[in-house]
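On clarity, I found the account of how folds are encoded harder to follow than it need be. What matters is that the chain and its backbone geometry are given together, residue for residue. The format is easy to grasp once an entry is in front of the reader. For illustration, here is how one protein appears when written out as sequence plus structure tokens.
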Amino acid sequence: MELTVWGIITALFVGLIVGALGRLVVPGRQPMPIWLHMLIGVGAALLGTVIARASGFAETAGIDWRELMLQVLLAAVAVALVSGVGRRRGVTHR
């Protein structure tokens, strides 16, 4: 896989969307700023891509819906974990 500037920009854009979708998938209110959701989304998008490529299902033409769903699932899990850690520590956000 060749890493290009356009590929990095695309990964960041997809990560922002994945972070927003991850926030919507987790029920309830998450006491986290939106920038943290987006950062989690970028990480989930990158991790999801690595897992999809290692599993062999990231080599499709067009949008790979399985890879995208994996990325959203990873983002939702990460959002739930991070917001749960904040609640246990007694962190309150307005």
Remarks:
- The chain has a mean pLDDT of 76.
- The chain has one domain: 7-25+33-85.
